[in-house]
Amino acid sequence: MKTSIHPDLAALPDVQAADSILRNCVHCGFCNATCPTYQELGDELDGPRGRIYLIKNLLEDNRISAEAVTHLDRCLTCRACETTCPSGVQYGQLIDIGRGMAEQYAERSRVRQTLSWLMRLVIPRRWLFKPLLRTGQLFRPLLPAALKSHVPARQQTLPPLAASDNPRVLLLTGCVQSAATPGVVTALQRLLAKAGRPANLVDEGCCGALDYHLGAHEAGRAHMRRVIDQLLPELDQVDAVLSSATGCGVTLAEYPRYLEDDPVYAARAQRLADKCRDAVSYLAALELPVPASNGLRVAVHTPCSMQHGLKLNGQVEKILERLGYTLVPHAEGHLCCGSAGSYSILEPALSERLQRRKIRALQAGKPDVIVTANIGCQLHLGAGADVPVIHWLELVAADLS
Ligand code: SF4
Ligand code: SF4
Fold first, then answer.
1. SS3 171
2. Is the pLDDT of residue 164 over 80?
3. Residue 24 CA to ligand 1 centre (angstroms)
4. Structural domains in the chain, sorted by start
5. Ligand 1 pocket test target in 30, 45, 46, 78 with most atoms within 8 Å of CB
6. What is the pLDDT of residues 177-233, one digit of tens each?
């Protein structure tokens, strides 16, 4: 794709990165075939190719209309288009840049601005988020359905194991996951203990993804630098830093890109990213005891961050099959469930359509349980499914205990 960047923008590093991404696009439109919003809405401007043109126009004209911003905002950042694109267009990076710029040009609706501000204020601050969540859980039976679907029921969880003096692994606890499903990381800790790998929990807080994907790039980068400062002193003593939420895991893996222009933190981000892995890739190499068969039929929902971001599609299935579970296949595995971080709050109608579509596909084979690997998908699908939706680590740890 030929571009002619506006002279006032040409020197900006983000614009230069966007320009080189745009030049790889040959406008073939293959990506529309796997784009959930294009599949649902059928509008070229709600598909990746259309959004790429909108971002190109923004960089060439140095302005963007409110309507064009709406099409950018409807993107889930699921990156299915990246997996499909034969030309290797890095769409995820491009939409982040486009949204960050649009933030400066276009006024969003008051409601959207307020919701974004509230999420950015509350979610990364556990001292604020956790009591609010607990209050919501207390009054959950009385809440209207629309609100209730955003408040997960309180979990019974096993406490963490005692911290080891010589941990082989650090386990990230995250922000939303540590408050809503704290049993996921303790399940992982127990699985690692069974495989002879002592692991300690780390309270690292928000990885920065929420701010960054909402266009607040500097606030996102501030979280990233804080996480790096916290983890760096411990990196040499451990084999790996594991994430059990693929949305956070993909962000950590891409810290070097987010911080590439930072002369101090670029190398530190790379050191951390080199140690960070998703739980599935670390556990795949370990011997886990095979649990007694419980006859459960399991449908696996692979989060977009896992398949299109971390490129770990099929890895959870491999471990579950090795451990003797009966997997129930389903159609449209590449399509996003509509959770997509803050998307289910900011674009509730489209998010709900995708949720229903995904649940229909997952439940078509009549599974007893749906498993996934990311907190957002777990809560989003769990709010509408007829069968339990849990993290795959919880399933395995419960069967082994
Ligand atoms: S598939 Fe790739 S090259 Fe083709 S239109 Fe989509 S982004 Fe551009
Ligand atoms: S990231 Fe997902 S929703 Fe956005 S354009 Fe690509 S496929 Fe469509």
1. strand
2. yes
3. 8
4. 13-105 (1.10.1060.10), 297-400 (3.40.50)
5. 30
6. 888 899 999 999 999 999 999 999 999 999 999 999 888 999 999 999 999 999 999
